[in-house]
Specification:
2 copies of one chain form a homodimer.
Chain A (H helix, E strand, L loop, with lengths): L2 H20 L14 H5 L11 H12 L21 H13 L10 H18 L6 E5 L2 H16 L3 H4 L5 E6 L4 H9 L7 E4 L9 H13 L3 E6 L13 H10 L3 E5 L24 E4 L1 H4 L7 E5 L2 H8 L30 H35 L4 E3 L7 E6 L3 H13 L6 E5 L2 E7 L7 H21 L1
Parallel strand pairs in A: 2-3, 2-4, 4-5, 5-6
Antiparallel strand pairs in A: 1-7, 6-7, 8-9, 9-11, 10-11
Helix pairs in contact in A: 4-13, 5-13, 6-8, 6-12, 14-15
């Protein structure tokens, strides 16, 4: 492709992207298709000769777009809604063109130092202490895995050489994201050594039961080594009592990792900074700008006050990547599994500068307001009930009917293409989840989905 | 940002990218700066109010670009050179705008199915058997970690629940990429349980010593569970004898994982398909399109003939991501650590279609030809010697002088800004590495760097 062709196709692509984001309400949030439909439509082998970009872009529109779930849709309310914002997209474009790899300082001075700068900025927004060292991983799943590995290194420095001792036990709440348990499995700790502590009526970890469990394990000759509270659990966005959990963790000398992947972003609001109370005592914390800070996938921010322990857990420096030592040169590959490290900080830099703290706060605040307002409407409607507190922008609610009624209601809404909600199970009951998190979402979108919910409920009731 | 502003800044950004790639030879490959220079230049806190995109883009040019190591530069010859090609960049742009997450089929039908389609295409290009199941991970470091975790699941199905047994032993060559050892450490296997088998005079794993080591471990009550040969080692691009290693692995019932992160791409050339001989017997293999198949970072292709074992090692399906079961719907999150999964297949689809197999082969073939030709020039020059065979596009060579001479030579070249080479140590001697892998590299670039090498050597000799 010549430069002029790239310029032309690049502009065409930008125009398509602009139109897409502008007209996104016209797309069904979920595609109307069956598994395999797209595979059946596409050739079973790649072409021998190259094809024209015109044809490729046309096929993108004709075949790929109709098979998309539109995460950037303002009525995408499933899981945790997120945003690929305009400035974030511009950052990603440049990252792709530069195609750098910040494995060591020398291979990407700008990649390395902008990572330090933007994570320093974000640390201040979150109100975390100065001694927290920041590093970007792709996802919170990976960040949490690194936290637990660092915890292992602290509890059992021989493990790097000898392997797991089998004595280590980790503690999470029954509402922790399943990626925490998966990380423990991956690290070879065994599910039997991961205690899921029951939660209270507001879905927060029961600290009394945490202490009991740790004490029982210690008496049994096990070593409690890591506790992972969550700020914004996946099912309900509940907030574990980090400060009292920190007390217990300290008593047992355990690493405290705070999973604030979703909820953490809200701490940039002065009125919500207290959600991270106790996190300043943590050994590590993860917050996902790609969840609720308008940054395209993927960018997860990880902070630790023990970078040397993290480094001991992961550092291996073979000759072919050795560079001159310099106290100011961070070689990020020493702090993680991945040798390949994209230039992720660029998009975060664009986002933080474009919105500024006030702009970012205003958007997050509006999401929370919409969610609270919707929760109010649900609460005052006789046919519906709120199923969990709403500390952030996630509303958990039920139609006052059977689980099957609620299941049918959800399928109805999602099949309409007008909105995408997800679900969870709380106290054995099927519950609908509606998470506000897209930058383009307006109150009118919530009104529309609420009307749709009520209408679908009526249909469900009639059918039953 | 309004749509019209995004359109304007997007086009401006595309123009910058086009100019950058067009004029990239004018940039020094390595920046002239000291660690901390960029950090010192940037504000220590993010702005309170949002800033104009004009200002942000200007700062990008003024501050970030001069601090970049230009991986997309045609005279970037360090590590393994790669390419963010035009079609790949266009794919990344769309991925950022769509901002999808293919954790389950439903959350991204197109993400999931295009991943299946493109990895099927690539599998055919590589000549791998039909039963290989493909999945995209971010990096080969992560892919290899998943391979070893699957190997553990096969050897010790109780480990998921109980944790590592301490009996498992893994085998790599002394020239395996260090990410393999790091993956073993991360999985909690312990460095003591990773055997680095010595290599022969061509830096290939010694199969006789592999067998001896496995036998000794078995006798000692250990369980040899995983063998990782490399096709294209990082130091020299040597090729371990996969077929004979497969014989040994089979005798011990061990998982065979082939690390072809760099070299694998060359197997799309009909005349080089034999480099993967034996890989068809492997349990898994990793090949990085982001290394030598013109795909922007990050995209690593992983194949396994045992997807069910991989799934058993990683599957956890909590209620909040449960979807209807369908035999044709793959939920990729069940096959890995990461819950967040970018739409990576799109850029690979663009690249494979734009170049076609013939076009892709022509580029890789030219890289190999340039490297062979340069190796010939080096070999016939009295002051230089070739330090390792050149099966691909990586040339390992030395100036016939001391290690310090060679170190000075390398620093000289890299300080010139005209090219970036890296180094390794072979048989205790400092060796220069020159890897051809950028899509814009022409033979003239090699001539220029060869002239520079000779000139720097003269300078070094005079100084000494």
């Amino acid at each position: 492709m010549t430069t002029e062709e790239f310029r032309r196709y690049g502009r065409e692509t930008v125009d398509w992207m602009a139109d897409y984001l502008d007209n996104i309400r016209d797309y069904p949030v979920l595609p109307d298709m069956h598994p395999g439909d797209l595979m059946d439509r596409l050739p079973s082998a790649a072409p021998e000769q190259g094809e024209s970009m015109d044809m490729i872009l046309e096929d993108f529109e004709q075949s790929i777009v109709p098979a998309l779930t539109h995460w950037n849709h303002p009525r995408f309310f499933a899981y945790f809604a997120n945003s690929g914002s305009h400035p974030g997209i511009l950052g990603e474009m440049l990252t792709a063109a530069l195609n750098g790899n910040g494995m060591v300082w020398k291979s990407g001075p700008a990649i390395t130092e902008l990572e330090q700068v933007t994570l320093g900025w974000l640390r201040q927004w979150l109100g975390l202490p100065r001694e927290f060292f920041g590093i970007i991983y792709d996802t919170a799943s990976i960040g949490t895995m690194h936290a637990i590995a660092a915890a292992r290194e602290m509890a059992d420095p021989d493990s790097r050489r000898k392997g797991n001792s089998g004595r280590l036990v980790m503690y999470i709440s029954e509402h922790a994201n399943f990626s925490v348990e998966k990380a423990g499995m991956t690290l070879g700790l065994g599910q039997d050594n991961i205690r899921q502590i029951p939660s209270d009526e507001a879905f927060r970890m029961r600290v009394d039961l945490l202490r009991e469990a740790m004490e029982a394990d210690r008496r049994a000759g096990k070593k409690p080594f890591c506790v992972v509270p969550t700020v914004g659990t996946t099912s309900t966005s509940s907030i574990d009592p980090v400060n009292t959990i920190a007390d217990v963790a300290e008593d047992y000398g355990a690493w405290l990792h705070v999973d604030a992947a979703y909820g953490g972003a809200a701490a940039i609001l002065p009125e919500l900074q207290n959600i991270l109370d106790g996190a300043e005592r943590a050994h590590s914390i993860v917050v996902n700008p790609h969840k609720w800070l308008f940054t395209p996938m993927d960018l997860s921010a990880f902070y630790t006050r023990e970078p040397e322990i993290l480094r001991r857990a992961f550092s291996l420096v073979p000759e072919y990547v050795k560079t001159a030592e310099d106290p100011r040169a961070v070689n990020y590959m020493e702090y993680g599994v991945q040798l390949g490290r994209r230039f992720r900080a660029l998009k975060l830099w664009f986002v933080m500068r474009h919105y500024g703290r006030e702009g970012a706060c205003a958007i997050i605040r509006s999401h929370i307001e919409y969610a609270q307002k919707l929760a109010g409407l649900i609460r005052s409607h006789p046919d519906f009930e709120i199923a969990a507190p709403t500390p952030f922008s996630l509303v958990c609610f039920r139609y006052r009917g059977s689980d099957d009624d609620n299941r049918a209601l959800l399928e109805n809404i999602n099949a309409s293409g007008k909105a995408f909600l997800s679900h969870t199970v709380l106290n054995g009951r099927f519950v609908l989840r509606l998470a506000v998190g897209n930058i383009s979402t307006r109150w009118e979108d919530l009104e529309e989905v609420w009307a749709l919910v009520k209408q679908s409920a009526k249909k469900t009731a009639t059918a039953g």
